[in-house]
Amino acid sequence: MKKKWVVPIIAAMACVCAVGCSAPKKNSVEQDGKSVFPVSAYDESLPISMGDVMPFYDNGVMNIYHLQNHTGSNSLFYHPVSRLTTTDYVNYRDEGISLDFVEEVASVDAALGTGSVIKDKDGMYHFFYTGHNDNGQSEGLKFNEVVRHATSTDLQNWFKDEEFNLYGYENDFRDPYLYYDSDEDVYNMLVTTRDYGKGVIKRYSASSLDATWQEWNDEGVFFYNDDGDYNMECPSYIEYNGFYYLAYSEQGENRVTHYRYRKGKDGEWKKFERDSIDASGFYAGRLEKAGDRLFAFAWCANLSAGSTGDFDWGGNLVAHEIKQLSDGELCAVMVSEVKDAFSTEVNYNFIDGNSIEKVSFDGGFAARGAERLGTNITRINFTFSVENFGGNFGMTFGLDGKFDNRLGSAAVAFDTVNSKLVCYNNISSVVRYGAPLASVPFAYTAGKDYVVDIIIEDEIITVYLDDTVCLTARFPEMKRKNFAFYSNGNKVNFKGITFYE
């Protein structure tokens, strides 16, 4: 595995201008290998994507364990667990594979699935993960999935306990999440599984992380699916400022990371009207604390059929900082280190040569075309206010030239009619957007100023709206193509438009 080092932030990024220039120029900032949406690794220049993320914060370092989208000698062997590390969420180090699959047709570890890392009272690290074998039962195994256990002293070199094989009651039995209950002095393990045809999260308990699989007690169902019968994948359970949160991802129609909350450990589970973190471009999300801060990590998938496809499996890491409201509601916001790292103002122009600072639309359809989006990581900040709720407006990408009054191949839309923040990647005309790629609910108020912060790297974009909701998407045709601000049926004002690198 080729390791990739990323240069740390030294002080502040400088804008390199030509002698005598009075304004910063786009593509002028040296970004020193920084990344907002890193992949798992690189094989020479080819990126290897990642899947389910297993964050673990320890001694000032965020360890991003994840399933690497990598296969062995045949289709039975896949998904080793690899690790990235970071201290600032813009410089990531590839630590290589931590735990590998076993290329034996009857192995419980023919493929690996999601798990979690926890440190015991003596400082030993424990990794409980999913062993998977597509042909397990036909090879004589009890079921195709089993919870497994490994230990480490350095978070990189893991030693499997070959005797630890905790099975459930059917093939769906995976994604263990471990936490310690100090009041009860007991370790708990949450497991994604099924019960009488319905998705549930079960709880097991043990007095020690070194317990044998027989010593883990089945404590029954921890949480019943309250919204359908789909599997609730990749659970995480966090106490934060007096609230207890359970996050999980819907292996169903909506494909989002949901969360539930309660005030006490044994309180009633509740949900807010908007119960997801991001949208379907942010999958298998897990919560993790870093000191007094809370984060959510997931992955944005590659698309299944080119630029107009749906989300598939395997992609890039996405990290959000989580803001907690007084009533316990969670809102995803841009990680503060990301905002600080990309804070050098650069200039972009409309096609008439004027710098992009503000633009207004009076209704109907109109778009103001701009120059090509640069290759650097770009942050865009602006404020908008909308006066009528007749359609949608926002930014459109993938234009094949400097055109006014056209839409590109993709768009981020503030949809006032349907009360959503939504993105499209299959636009054929101003009246045919195709099915949304992803969306989150958001109610707009006429005349109110809303602040938008956008971060773009390569094919991926995250839009943060009013420090309340966010949406992550993949637009493959965004790179090095023109973009525009547009409105389709709204009277709207964009102001304070600023670009940063």
Layout of SSEs?
Elements: E1 41-43, E2 46-48, E3 50-58, E4 61-68, E5 81-86, E6 93-99, E7 111-119, E8 125-132, E9 145-152, E10 159-160, E11 173-181, E12 186-195, E13 198-206, E14 217-224, E15 231-240, E16 243-251, E17 257-262, E18 276-277, E19 283-290, E20 293-307, E21 311-324, E22 330-333, H1 336-341, E23 345-346, E24 359-362, E25 365-372, E26 378-386, E27 392-399, E28 410-415, E29 420-424, E30 438-441, E31 450-457, E32 460-465, E33 469-474, E34 482-488, E35 491-500
Antiparallel strand pairs: 1-2, 3-4, 4-5, 5-6, 7-8, 8-9, 9-10, 11-12, 12-13, 13-14, 15-16, 16-17, 17-18, 19-20, 20-21, 21-22, 23-35, 24-35, 25-34, 26-31, 26-35, 27-28, 27-34, 28-29, 29-30, 31-32, 32-33
How does this model look, in words?
With 501 residues, the protein is mostly beta strands. The chain contains 1 helix and 35 strands. The protein has one helix at 336-341, and strands spanning 41-43, 46-48, 50-58, 61-68, 81-86, 93-99, 111-119, 125-132, 145-152, 159-160, 173-181, 186-195, 198-206, 217-224, 231-240, 243-251, 257-262, 276-277, 283-290, 293-307, 311-324, 330-333, 345-346, 359-362, 365-372, 378-386, 392-399, 410-415, 420-424, 438-441, 450-457, 460-465, 469-474, 482-488, 491-500. The strands form 8 sheets. Strands 23, 24, 26, 31, 32, 33 and 35 form a 7-stranded antiparallel sheet that branches. A 6-stranded antiparallel sheet has the order 25-34-27-28-29-30, with no helix packed on it. A 4-stranded antiparallel sheet has the order 3-4-5-6, with no helix packed on it. The protein is globular and about 70 Å long. It starts with 40 loop residues before the first strand and ends with a strand.
